[in-house]
Specification:
This is DUF2157 domain-containing protein. Keywords: Membrane, Transmembrane, Transmembrane helix. The protein is an all-alpha fold. It has 14 helices and no strands. Helix 3 packs parallel to helix 5 and helix 7 runs parallel beside helix 9. The radius of gyration is 23 Å and the shape is globular.
Amino acid sequence: MYNDEDLNQAVEAGIFTNDSVSQFKSHIASLKNTSLADEENFRLITGFNDVFVVIASGLLLASIGFLGFHISPMLGTAGVAIASWFLAEFFVVKRRMALPAIMLLLSFLGGVFATPLVNYQHPNEIGFVIAGIVTSIAAMLHWRRFRVPITVAAGVAAICGSIIAVVLASFPIAITWVNSMLLIAGLSIFGLAMYWDASDRKRQTRSSDVAFWLHLAAAPLIVHPIFSSLGVLQGIGGVSVSLMVVGLYVLLAMISIAVDRRAIMVSALVYVIYAFSTLLETYGMVSYSFAITGLCIGATLLLLSAFWQVSRRQVVKVLPTPVQMLLPEVHA
């Protein structure tokens, strides 16, 4: 299997021309009766060898961590981080394997994050701040070397976590503002994701993959504080709350359709399902509440998926032209 990045490199090597690659992509899109950009593609696995390498790497890293930890806790976590980097040199740089790249990034950052903390039985906020800053720097270095798309999202998440930890350490009363801070972090990451998306409106380069992971990181940080403020998961129900949940979900759906990213809709699903299941239970439909809710929402989402491009055209055309120029292209 080949992705857009492979095709672009073939163009740079003179194997294909830009026109031939564009015609090939258009042909594939016509066969699927959809636009490749609207499919929100991202490279994750190219064959079972990816899974094989992930399993083998996991066993190796777990063994290194276990043996090193018995000598010194910091040696164990640092050993995992160092081994992850060297494994990435082969499987990411030379073999260009996507799933191992993600796994090795997470193990590298996990090892870096844990190294400053493992010697403390009860690490405080300052320890987490230091770990977050070090992890952010490590993520930046990893990005400069390996260019794994998820790295940007991981680094930004570490930075946001460090900032929130600093605020909580400096002002303990700020614990009551956690949802607000998470929302601000989510909106900031969403803005960064839109920046990457705007740089690749046709979704043909690595920028689109970076934006995908940023949207995935931003979605729960945006959705959770909003629905949590309504008390949905705390059992605060009723018709009024359910209607508010529906209204918010429709708004989030419109945003998802406009930016051509489904992460926000998926993140909000659990709140919508829970709210309506609770509402139906209050009217005596205890046994069937979840099934009825799932049937209605599932059918609606499948219908939306089938007419995604049509929906996008209708939503995007009412937006101001400057905004449209920042969004992924709308295809006929």
